[in-house]
What does this fold into?
Amino acid sequence: MQAQAHYDYLIIGADAAGNSAAGQIRRRHKEATIGILEKGAIISYGACGLPYAVSGKIDSIDKLIHFTPEAFGGRTKADVLVGHEAIGLNTDAKKVQVQTEHGALEIGYGKLLIATGAAPIRLPFIDYAHPGVFELKTVPDGRAIKSYVASGKVKRAGIIGAGYIGLEAAETFREMGLAVTVIEALDRAMPRLLESQSNQIANQMQKEGVEFLTGVRAEAMHSDGDGIVLTTSAGELQFDLLLVAVGMRPNTSFLDSSGLALDKGAVVINQKGETSLADVYSGGDCALVHHALLGKAVYYPLGHTANKQGRIAGVNMASPPEQQLEFAGVTGTQVFKFFDTAYAATGLSAAEAAANGFEPVEVSALRPSKAGYYPGSGKAKMSLVFDQKSQQLLGAFYSGPLDSYAMIDAASALIYKKATASEIAWMDFAYAPPFAPVWNALISAAGKLLGDE
It folds into this structure.
């Protein structure tokens, strides 16, 4: 497809935020021209499902792709321009510089959305061209890992980084029959979680046969035939496959000379999705997001947030002032599965609360996930962080059976509503033996603060 010289609405990035915005714009402006730039060939995919597609739980990686460019273009009557990478922005001329396989061009816009997402952080000493070195961010990444393991060459997998991606990959590789070693430079996995939760994760790794090396820094890499030798602060390690998962960075380097306000690479936006420059909006993993509890913008790249920010930006780009929306913000709600356990968090830890001027107090409760006598009941632990003076709920941390994770959603809602311990302890939550005990871990933890438990 050939790009037009100018679009009423131009979107850079054809995934969660960008596509959500396109849909909202088209609902409001039936005749406007919409152009969507995407540097890759695949749009609109569920990156969070990649570990499960690699392991075979999801039987085809193609199931993660929601729309083809042609289907989404037809649905929104937009030009979906794959293989078009934004390489510069001139906001005075209202033009985006674009690189394609046929050369460079400029595309003008009336209003612009930057939704370029985030890219994996790369370690300078890793040879990413090595056939056994991988990241796990895109559909091609997932396909390449699955194919490489299926080749029969892989018996030992190494993972640098014990965050969400690293841990989910560790589970995936163990399910595929590989020996797995996870290397983490910090002293524990998932430092945003409580230390007790990190310890629980470490114990699970030991139980599942995953070697876990904490306080170990990767320092160099070289090839040993078809294998990989990783030099670390604890000595040399040998692998057939190496996955690097040390974090993400906003994909915004093309904006460096644009004059757009950035914060550590993330686009600074307000609750309407507006940037520091007129007619330029942003959302998703490349941008900051409003934190509902802190009342300020933070960097919190999550897929469900990207969809919401894109929808808000699209509404506001195509609506008069009286119909515009503000995003209420996030509390940082996250959940992930590690083998048979769900780990979840929302709001602030005690350390984060103290750093932001609160006087935190933490209480925990361990309760059955169902009625204790009901088959399949497990132990659900909820730790709550309150402000000591006001008793307002500031944060919640859950670990337990997969089917009880939704207590973290309840906690997030309570944080939004600034609920107090005395309110939470007497909340009317559902009870029936197959689903929950009379006193679940959330209300029990709140009751502890009041001295009722």
Q: What stands out?
A: The radius of gyration is 24 Å. Residues 332 and 404 are 19 Å apart (CA to CA).
